[in-house]
Amino acid sequence: MQSHGWRVVAFCFLAAVFTWGLGVFGASIYLHEVTTAHGWSVSLVSAGITVFYLTAALVLPAVGAAIDRHGSRRVIAGGAVLLALGVAALGYVAAPWQLHAAFVCMGLGYATMSVTGLSATIAPWFEKYQGRAVAMALTGASVGAMIVVPLVALSIARRGFSATTTGAAAIAAITLVPLALVVLRYRGPAELGLGRDGAAASTVAASPGAAVLPAWTRAQALRSLALWSVALGFALGLTAQVGFFTHQVKLAAPVLGATGAGWLVGVTGLAGLLGRLLLAWVADWIELRRYAAAIFATQALALVLIAMAPRAPVLVGMTFVYGFCLGQITTLSPIIVRREFGAASFGTVYGIAGTVIQLSSAFGPALYGVARDLLGSYPPVLAIAAGFELAALAVVLAGGRR
Question: Residue 70: pLDDT above 90?
Fold first, then answer.
């Protein structure tokens, strides 16, 4: 039994709950609260959220390489502290530069516990079950949206924005830092005398059927069509996706009210959880690129339907569909890279893909904000985003192995 490997997965699940709940999905709450409290424009605050994603993107290569070389323990513990400090600061901003500084701090923390950081933490522990392990860990992102965001919205209504961000930040730091120092004390199964998936190290070494992929250098990876098709395809899809859930509360509030819009984020999280559970079940035996293409097509259809009929039944129903796909898209890119490039250089290789994906998707909130201010409403913006999803479909399929 690979008991410690699954403990690592459990920790990564918990880290994802806080990272996505307070960072990624929480940004939708912050956008609504800050624009309402200060009278700042949607595009101005959206630009701050873009700073959050850009900061994470710029440090992702260093995070992946650091985890490959030194392990995850101190990297993730430090990241948890930075994420908590940024969240706490958001409740006290009084000027745009302070807003941006808080998002920079959050972005540094998010980079260590993003898809790249958590996938690189899990990669050394699994081979046969790597798809299942990553998918199960990242279901924490859906739980964060499903539980943390509604609780934050409810706490803001009762206690106020500043008290809520301070309390949430304290809970995150107190929970994650000690667990990271304890659970992540081993860098891989070799330190326990085991191979991947819990097999005895001698059994793994002697197995004639064991597939060992060669280590990739950064230069080799940069010349790979397979890697660039993942990076660019998921960059296009996640630009549309990140923009959508960042503006989700603002988009839904006129129809459902602020509290109802917060619960809609929870619906998105529930749908994402179901999607990730399905992916955990099928990931290790399906053709992942075709599956990703089908998910992109479904997301495009959901966005078009919301744009055409932004009423409560359609908004809730299609948000559920979009969320079901959202959880899988976030999880698929590291599983594809891990399968096609192996574990030995996963942090380095996915650090490249993750940086491209993060840099592109970082502009999703700002693009939605600027387009909404220019076009006057969200439906035209959603139609444009659907085009991004279809372009992502084409690029991911184009890079498949022949």
Answer: no
Per-residue pLDDT of 29-68, as tens digits, reads 888 888 888 888 878 888 888 889 889 888 887 887 788 7
| CATH of residue 103 | 1.20.1250.20
Task: Dig out the tokens for 115 from the structure.
Answer: 């898809």
Q: What is the extent of the structural domain holding 248?
A: 3-190+216-398
302 lies in a domain?
yes
Query: Could you tell me the end-to-end alpha-carbon distance of the chain, in angstroms, rounded to an integer?
Result: 36
- Residue 387 counted as domain residue: yes
Total domain count for the chain?
Answer: 1
Could you give the angle at the alpha carbon of 200 between the alpha carbons of 197 and 204, nearest 5°?
Answer: 75
Is residue 372 in some structural domain?
Answer: yes
CA atoms within 13 A on the CB side of 149: 38
Judge residue 397's burial from the number of C-beta atoms within 10 Å of its C-beta, 0-12 exposed, 13-18 middle, 19 or more buried. Answer: middle
Per the CB < 8 A criterion, the answer to whether 130 and 343 are in contact is yes
DSSP string, 77-139: HHHHHHHHHHHHHHTT--SHHHHHHHHHHHHHHHHHTSHHHHHHHHGGG-STTHHHHHHHHHH
Report if residue 224 sits inside a domain: yes
Phi, psi of 324, rounded to the nearest 5 degrees: -60, -40
Cα–Cα distance between 118 and 172 in angstroms, integer? 16
Structure tokens at 64: 């992946």
